Amino acid sequence: MPVAIEFRKAVLGAGLALAAVACQSNSPSTETPAAGEAAAGSTTLSAGTWRGVLSAQGQEIPFLFDVNTDGGKPTVTLRNGEERLKLDEISSAGDSTTIRLGVFDAALVVQTDGADKLKGTWVKYDGKEPYRVPFAATKGGAETTLFAGSTQNKSVFGDLKKGATFRTVFKGADGDTTPAVGIITQDSVNPTRLTGTFLTSTGDYRYLAGNLVTLADGQHIMLSTFDGSHGFLFDGKLDKPENINNITGHFYSGKSGHETWTAVLDPNAKLPDANALTGMKPGQKKLNFKFPSIYEGGSISPSDPKYKGKVVVLQVLGSWCPNCMDETNFLAPWYEKNKQRGVEIIGLGYERTTDQKVASQKLLKMKQRMNIGYDLAVAGQASSAEASKSLPQLQKVLAFPTTIFLDKKGEVRKIHTGYSGPGTGKYYEQEVAEFNKTIDQLLAE
């Protein structure tokens, strides 16, 4: 999944996929910011809409969030375009408050910094090295704007409902390029507002939101997101004012990831077939594995009696992976509605730790928070190389998630790399339709 530049390079080296560098994790429930990261004082999370800012690489990565204090206990809801991510694990120690970021092993650690202001740190506990990014927030009104300088008052992106499609290329400092499809939509009520995403062969950048901004050097498309695991900023300059035919820009990912990108308006832009990026090794038809269950003492194998004679879907995933969360949000309720048809799902979890117990705890938390009814196994560490090694009958694992379809004989019939989530609009609808078509065909055999 394309969730960070450094992850993409870790998986494919020269190209397309993303995964995490595996590492150990021991996650405290709270953390006190280092000196200078937050001002002293009792933390106040007052109800309303806030504009948060992550400061990294000399850039500001803004995002909006809502605080609700009904019932006396605050909740925080991250807002990324149409997405709403509710955070309810909030605790205080001394003069700091820790806001756990959903299923991810990360948190915002904050303190009050004056009236209606917060200051603190975005902390990722499962990083190979300490990962801390300065954070600040200011309370605003319902119409809080992500990016200042938003002045556009007319349509630039054509059909406001369908948006514009771009043939896009990301380029790293080493010269490696990644093809993508960009989708950007302009709000029909407030033309300064934009939403969109970028799709790659290994997944999408999920829900992006921002504004069309006029700066000293011209008009810019500014899009950002913060889902708890990743903070992204896309800054694209229009070649000519009010002309979106050609865009050049920068992509900043969290603490250190940076790429340049170009986009050309192209309604026919498309990616390689996600079902043809990998396959089985010559002569191989089945996957032979036996992984530990997330429940102590148990194990999971496709040859278990539970799966005999059934269509089985294998979901290669990680609890750290936002695209995997998108797929799980589809698969979990789908499974409850369809399991009686003779279909099972096995989640193969690859985590950022070598400690099986810690990995099990992370996946169990994911299972509980996302109401997952199907089985989850601890399959290995979060890297393409480790995933490929653990499933040696496959040519390779390119991305998290990867979805593998087994027929009633247990033979691999289809391997789908990546996932186009709900932030991609019509591409998500196509993803769901294709999934259902594949299952129907295999069940009918």
TrEMBL record:
- Which GO MF terms does the UniProt record name? oxidoreductase activity
UniProt keywords (A-Z) are: Signal
Q: Where is the Thioredoxin domain?
A: 280-444
Signal sequence coordinates: 1-19
| Protein known as | TlpA family protein disulfide reductase
What lineage is on file? Bacteria, Pseudomonadati, Bacteroidota, Cytophagia, Cytophagales
